[in-house]
Specification:
Elements: H1 3-6, H2 8-18, H3 23-36, H4 39-52, H5 57-69, H6 73-86, H7 93-105, H8 109-122, H9 127-139, H10 143-156, H11 162-166, H12 174-186
Helix pairs in contact: 2-3, 3-4, 3-5, 4-5, 5-6, 5-7, 6-7, 7-8, 7-9, 8-9, 9-10, 9-12
């Protein structure tokens, strides 16, 4: 096995070296930089991908997602909204989830709800959508709704572990991670 097939970032970098204008490779690389904790490079790659493909919903989802994970949710919202405008009928689930997350992260809970509900209407078992809706209800003080949504999540994934899921979070600002985890704990998730 070559290095490029074992390490996705190497594959994305190789694709870019072969074609500097390959927008999808820039978006993928941006998301991989998030996983490595290199938020500046992540946003730079996401922005590059979106600039290369101004009519690509996928490029804008990747760019907006790098902004959200970089704890820049207010900047992510218009980028993710553009992704939704570019693909309004069958949007990327990540665009809906991350629009909900971005609104929730800045305390615009009422604005977050429709994105999670639309996502879960299309994909009822979507983990991030269920978690986002649960956290949003809890942060709004709607504990009955939060506990009911948490119960739905546990039906979908009876082995769900908040501790295990927390290890997958990649927010730059630890406060963003703590806020969502606290809300989910209040909703009864463990």
């Amino acid at each position: 096995t070559t290095t490029t097939t074992r390490f996705p970032s190497a594959s994305a970098q190789k694709a870019i070296s072969m074609d500097e204008n390959f927008a999808d490779a820039h978006g993928i690389l941006g998301m991989l930089y998030i996983n490595k904790g290199n938020y500046e490079k992540a946003v730079e790659s996401g922005e590059r991908g979106a600039s290369l493909a101004p009519n690509s919903a996928g490029a804008f989802v990747a760019y907006g997602s790098t902004l959200m994970h970089s704890s820049r949710p207010a900047e992510a919202i218009p980028i993710l909204e553009k992704a939704l405008r570019l693909s309004p009928v069958k949007p990327f689930s990540m665009s809906l989830a991350n629009l909900g997350n971005s609104h929730r992260m800045i305390g615009k809970f009422e604005e977050a709800l429709p994105f999670y509900k639309r996502l879960l209407n299309d994909l009822p078992n979507h983990l991030t959508g269920n978690l986002g809706l649960t956290a949003t209800h809890a942060q709004m003080g709607r504990m009955e709704d939060a506990r009911a949504q948490a119960a739905e999540l546990m039906k979908i994934d009876p082995r769900f572990s908040l501790e295990r899921w927390a290890r997958t979070l990649r927010y730059r600002d630890p406060a963003d991670t703590e806020r969502v985890l606290d809300a989910l704990r209040k909703a009864g998730l463990k």
